[in-house]
Amino acid sequence: MSKIVVVGANHAGTAAINTITGFKENNEVVVFDQNSNISFLGCGMALWIGEQISKPDGLFYSNKEKLESQGAKINMNSSVDSVDFNKKIVHATLENGQKIEESYDKLILATGSLPIVPNVKGKDLENVQMVKLFQNAEDVIEKLKNPDIKTVAVVGAGYIGVELAEAFERKGKKVVLIDTMNTALSNYYDIEFSTMMDKNLESHGIQLAYGEMVKEIIGKTKVEGIITDKNQYKCDMVILAVGFRPNTALGDGKLKTLANGAYLVDETQQTNVKDVYAIGDCASVLFNSTGENSYIALATNAVRSGLIAGHNVCGKHMETNGVQGSNGIAIYDLKMVSTGLSEERAKKLGLDVESTSFEDLQKAAFIETENPKVKIKIVYDKNTRVVIGAQMASTYDMSMGIHMFSLAIQEKVTIDRLKLLDILFLPHFNQPYNYITMAALSAK
Prior knowledge:
By secondary structure, this protein is α/β, with parallel strands linked by helices. Helices cover 23% and strands 27% of the residues. It has a five-stranded parallel sheet. Strands 9-16-10-11-12 form a five-stranded parallel sheet, covered by helices on one side. It has a five-stranded antiparallel sheet with strand order 21-22-25-24-23, sandwiched between helices. Strand 5 (89-93) and strand 6 form a beta hairpin. Helix 1 runs parallel beside helix 7 (299-313). The longest helix is centred in the last third of the chain and has 15 residues, at 299-313. The termini are far apart.
């Protein structure tokens, strides 16, 4: 029996708690979380803001009562101020202000990530918003009831920024999407895919301000406009969605980190300090496309890391398979999915890669019902021919296809093995010479 302290009941923390309490061993589990709610699915915020769902209730899948019914002791609205890694003591402040010391045998850090706030003049004006927590989304929705909020500037054209741009447009707002890069979603897709999303956004009236850096947010007490290095835009609300950084202040120089501050963990999620584990957005992941530790803040990665740490703190050895950073987005009717590395990112990392692409109808050409095209690109190592990335786009929901490529990267499958892959054919589903096979056959 061990006393396990978990700092953070986010996706990773909740997965770890569920795993630990699921074992028959009667481990003592004490949890500290500084928020007032547990398990908020932030990926659903844009749907809520854009009124594609009527209420946020379904965005929560756990709560304090549920976790305590499983045997964990949950301290909400409670901050962990410091950790004495030598004495194995957590110093915390409870909701009532009481300072306590909690000893532990095993410690799991699930402290998540924090929004990156650009250091620009005017960032503290009224109606400059972050959108990460439930409370952030709630605040934005309440402010949008004000008819004076007519134009919203979204800073950052990554997944969150693009999703929010759609949400605000659906709410009838004029939207300006600003990013220093020249296309949206540049971390995940090559130019031929990202420009599909750009055209999609523009076709719905969203103004794209790419290749521009924000210099200042202007206004007397509340937002009146935003100034970049190239233009000035009138707006009534600014959304800062430029990314996240790992929340690792508790490490206090004792825990090894990546260059960006994420805790460096081994295949069991353990840090360089024995009995101290890190999971979720505060920790590194093994990125199979490069074989190196990296930082990929995704809820899916967080949940898996929580499962792994939960097993290991209970003495049940489990190791990570590594990750591919598989991801997807659906904006209006356009669906895009990717896994691993894009060709551009691979080349920036100094990898010698080739790619192969194909575009065709999803189903047999004689199908007379809806039959959209699917665009696919596979990236592979030029020398070993091992697949290291894939991208797909269509108005058709072909998202399940990316899972095969994720497994291919994990298991180091070559592009040549994909040429003769046994893929089913039925006109209702696909073509006999399907786009996956044809892309593989087209490889150099």
